[in-house]
Structure prediction request, 489 residues.
Amino acid sequence: MQTGDAIPELKVTPDKYLTVRYAGASGDFNPIHIDEDFARQVGLPGRILHGLWTMAQVARAQTDAGGGPYSLRRLQVQFRGMGLPEREVTVTGTVTELRDGVAVVHAVAEQDGRAIIRNAAAEIAPDGRRPARGRARRASRPGRFLQSGVVLTPRQELILRKVVEVHTATGLPVASKTLAGDPEIDCGPSTIRNELSMLEEQGLLAHPHTSAGRVPTDAGHRFYVDRLLVGRDLVPAGRALELQLVRREVDEAMRVTTETLSQVTNLLAIVSAPPIDTATVRHVEVLSLQPQVLMVVVITSTGGVTKKVFTFERPVDQGLSAWAGEYLNERLEGVSLGARTLHSRLADPSLGLTERSFLERLTPAFTELAATAEDTLYVDGAARLLSEHRIQDLTEINVLMGFLERRVALLHVLSEALGRRDVLVRIGHENEAPALHSLALVASGYGLPSRHLGTVSLIGPVRMDYGAAIRTVREAARQLSRFIEDVYE
Prediction:
């Protein structure tokens, strides 16, 4: 970057439901953001965007220009106007000066030619990376598992386990004095300090400040998960997980699972639903709305209901529509929505021309169902994750919120768990997505004995209670699999 350079322009159009989703993620349920009538009653043109969301777009433009989320060192903005959903927001910026390799950028966010954020000042360190915490912290390549093959003595393993557990509980560096007071550790402070130094040399602990205690690194947490949790009781520290899934439809079961996971763990829970093409047709209704208008209702084996309306040039014979309903149920009941046989079942050469032509008009009610369906994600607990100062860096919050809005990126992250027989744990920089580099992911597939259909996952701080998270995800996947087996049998 050079003085006078323009950063890449960022254009983003918030959809009409963004303010509702962001209210849930941020905890800001002010009705001016989610209630159209209320917003107009108080003199606004309609629901307005959250200021922090708009600020996040300014931050996103800076991190895109800098090459990563940790390139943004500082950001301040001045809110100038109100932003509205369904209208494009444009962020532009210019480098005004360079200070020791750090670019100072003046930026503005506009909508419909109006500035909604002005006088934004950002400091960007191009290709910036997350600062290392502690002199012995070892860098890891994003998306690669850290090695936990370090050989430790039993005493070192005990001390590392204690550091991880105390740091998880308090969020503070753990001093040798604290460990010396633990009845399980039978050595003095000087020996403990020496062992802490050895663990730091191994890259398992870091020393944030000279006078402070130690904190686990990503590698330290990986060693803890792989080596120190083996054989230990992984019962969650909170309530036992009981998913009330009996006699529920699939979409409601997904929602209940997500909400329960988040409530039990106080983490962000994400559940991916089974693909629509794994469902089968349970029942079809062909309903006459008007003489020339029909509606085809398709009920799937998972409880999903879709409706498609067809308009004809002339009135439809009632006997023909009634025959179509009976015929479609006879031909399609139990057929997979993603099966190639769906087309052949509908194309029956033994039928008369009138019947074949009529069925051809109704075919899109079935063929377009799987083609246009999108994989569904259920997310709950973003507000819990952001509470209690679990994520303190504004840049990290903005990056995470943006990531949660990108469905395809989320599905890619979760897809890795589909091919695993047990729980997947990704810690810090092991995650490929930059938005998750300061977080940990615990995920497991669920579904049928022959294959997984979806994933259950938790996202939280690297210092999460891994024992509880692993046990909870594993149990949720087991209960959800049992529910899915009943639905698909």
Observations:
- The longest strand covers residues 89-99.
- The mean pLDDT is 82.
- The two ends are 60 Å apart (CA to CA).
